[in-house]
Amino acid sequence: MGEYMAVATYVRVSTTDQNLNRQLQATHDYAVDELGVEPPAIEVYRDKSTGTDVERSGYQELISDAEDGRLDAVVVHEVSRVARSISDLERTVQRLREAGVAVHIVSERMVLRPDEEDEDPYQRALFQMLGVFAELDAKIKRQNIRQGIAARQESDEYNHGPAPIGFEKDNGELAEAGDYHRVCEILERVARDEMSQREAAKELACARKTVRTAVRDRPELYGIA
Known about the structure:
Blueprint: E1 7-13, H1 17-33, E2 42-48, H2 57-67, E3 73-76, H3 79-82, H4 86-98, E4 102-105, E5 110-112, H5 121-153, H6 156-160, E6 167-170, E7 173-176, H7 180-191, H8 197-204, H9 208-217
Parallel strand pairs: 1-2, 1-3, 3-4
Antiparallel strand pairs: 4-5, 6-7
């Protein structure tokens, strides 16, 4: 029997199943191999969402069950899956630790335990620093996107051409369309060679040229510059 009686895994992704499956496998393997948990005993919480907040149904259920005493440990793939801001990250970890739940971060091989006396101060500092970098990365992406939109609106192409994929024109201004975050997630996977242009075009119901142009010529509009 492993160290914990009740272990949960939490995974979050914005759009497609491939990323989610990778997180599911990594957290499952960690729970089984590192914590000695039998697969049927692993409780899985998941979310598909976008943005920087932590108001998600799977996340809320996880916290609720933890505070109800139903969990001993939570396994996540990386810090950014828990939250995209240091304040949300600190709040999440604090709530779990107050509930007596240990937090395991797979990719960084980190463990934050509820017992303050057993805490490694160096690991805690690293965890906080990772949260800061996650928040900074999100802010830089948002800033690049705003700058990219502003630059495009000043171009002749913008004034005469259609809005880029994921955007729409609102009273002459470029605005995010309803599928913008999904478009960003898919284009980012193309940029990282995790998805082909053909697959992305099929997912987004557009031409491969549209995907290629977005990734190659307009990455700042999607936070992948």
